[in-house]
Design goal:
Layout lengths: L1 E3 L13 H12 L4 E3 L5 H7 L17 H12 L2
Parallel strand pairs: 1-2
Amino acid sequence: DCCLIPESPFYLEGPGGLFEFIERQLKENGHMVIVVAEGAGQEFVAQSMPAVDEKDASGNRLLLDIGLWLTQKIKIQHT
């Protein structure tokens, strides 16, 4: 139903935002699937979590956990 990737910017709130889309899908279908690429939405996570300045074994910057962060935000939005 929804695939979030770093190459395609998205926003969370307001008309056309992710939360509105989730609400609509849940009302229409009662369920939905969200696939999140690890680099998606890093700017949102960085606003609420301390920056990580570490690298993996290949020298790539470690990314913040968008999956866990987004799960928490969706739960807050729908309670």
